[in-house]
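Sample entry (692 residues):
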Amino acid sequence: MTKQQDKAFSAKRHFPHSTHSPSFPGTLVLGVLLAFLGGCGGGAGSDAEGSGSTGGTGLTPPPGTHELNVTLSGSGQVVSQPAGIDCGSSCTADFGAGSSVTLSATPSPGFAFAGWSGNCSGTGDCTVLMTAARGVTAAFVETGGGTPTSYTLNVSRTGNGTVTSAPAGISCGSACSASYAAGTSVTLSASAASGYTFAGWSGGCSGSGSCTVSMTQARSVAATFTQSAPTSYTLSVSKNGSGTVTSAPAGISCGSACSASYASGTSVTLSASAASGYTFSGWSGSGCSGTGACTVSMTQARSVSASFTQNTASADLCNGLVTDKVAHPMPALAKPALGQTVTDPAFGTTIRRITEVGGTGVIKPAYSTIPAWNADESYLILYHTNTSNSGHHLYDGKTYQYIRKLDINPPDLEQFYWHTTDPDVLFYVNSSTKTLTRYRVSTGAKEAIKTFSCGGSVSGGSDPMFMSWDSDVIGLRCSSGFVFTYRISTDTVGATLSSGSGNAPIASASGTTVFFANGGNAEVRDLDMQYLRGLPIDPNEHASLGRLANGHDTHNAVSFGGYEGSLVTADMTDGSVRVIVGPETGYPYPPGGTHVSALAFKKPGWVALSIVGSTNGANTLNQELVLADSNAGGKVCRVAHHRSWGKAGPRGYWAEPHVVISPSGTRLLFGSDWGGGSSVDAYVVELPSYVP
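Predicted structure, serialized as tokens:
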């Protein structure tokens, strides 16, 4: 029962009939009661009141306790141990006489505990000994208007690592802020996580050593951890076709081990070796191209792809064809209807007509030096002229069904270049903007690769051929008087060469050199147009660049002087020259109107010829399509009569057959006026080796 409850209870018990609460002080009531009780034993009651003593009769705490009273100044809370005081709400309590009571102060937000007064002092916990009634005041001050006794230290991090403090409080990681008594000196230490380095402090500290701050105000410190540079990187090799890739230093042997880790900055050289029946056709990725060694610097993870193509030596395209050298006169043969086939009566091969232009129109291959089929032979491009819709038109490469006209504008009709591995891509130089453009056939999307600085037009020259067989290097001519090369993968424009020739340099199949018809000189130069060697041939005859199964680049041409033949192959790698089809090998002196196509990049060394000669086709090679393996010891086979009169007919140049070999070497595309007709259509010879 509290002191107040005890007082009320006593009054009610001794005055049960009172009709009102006593209005006199409680001490008087207790005095009267004591006097009355004293008089009950006899004696004169009349003066009892007057004679009653008041000594020791004032109101006192219950025996054995003392009162503790707490007063607050400002906003905060004080609690006691043992319980009793919880001030805020309950600020007075009785505690046993002689007991020890500990008071703790907690400031409200925005306030700081400034200290005790009364029976305590200082700012720590207050302990009072209850040998008498006690009074304590707790003072709290607003932090904006007083002097705080503690401040907060906040730590932030960038990257992975931890920050700890002495004295304890910060362990960031998890606890990134802590409160410290005003004036405390706090030292922060940073520890980087695995794979990271401590880069330094900012905010309340700088440098990369330990950080010491004095908590005279709230502080903020930032610790930055940066990812450490890897000490090694992975080199990954992928392959197309059959062969192996090895590395120096060792690590790659692909075959089996196609990835390896190398110390950062290591220079790794990859070498390719083709399996039996295959030829290494080139590198791609990480700046590697061509067929030489591939060297990469391991300053980051690298990926390189090696392509191997099946050699023609293991796939004889002449099987089932005529290989003799005697005359097979050309008999009359009716022109087949669109989509129909006829059998060549002299050579037994199948000829399919794939267009029907009518009138005086022309539909035919663009030129013998430019692939008509894409990489997987699923698309075919034919050029339409003297029609209502002239230009480059797309056909299905296998069914020969018409698809649509292509929205491209190369500098000349022959100057488009199929990608040799991506069947959806072709390249051309936009004649309006002088920009090498990547064109996606399936969608018609155009991507600008490189816009060239040139005072005139940029083109593949007056006698254009193909790009490198890895679709990475192209030779170009600026009409203001210089020539140069460009490598797509590294965005590298080679050194320019001033030239009055209308020709551009032609990228070799390997992409390591170019052929340049420099006036009357046949030259092999590097990609910076530096002279390497000359070839003892006429550079201005019809020709096509190719490659042998051993990887050597070749120039394949008709030649009428010195080396004579309908096909003379010059090795651009070692400078040697061989007559493949000519008097030296038992064939007649080359007839006129010969064009060469060496674009069977999946069958290196195979070359197709279209020869006009005499329009009656009575003698060997006249009016013929010929297929030759230019590899050492290769065969020559005679395929069909194309029956086109070329310049001797009414369509003139447009009636030249301009044979184009397919990438697989199993089909020959040509144009024909079919005996001097008024129109020119496209035809395909499907060889016995062709598989639809």
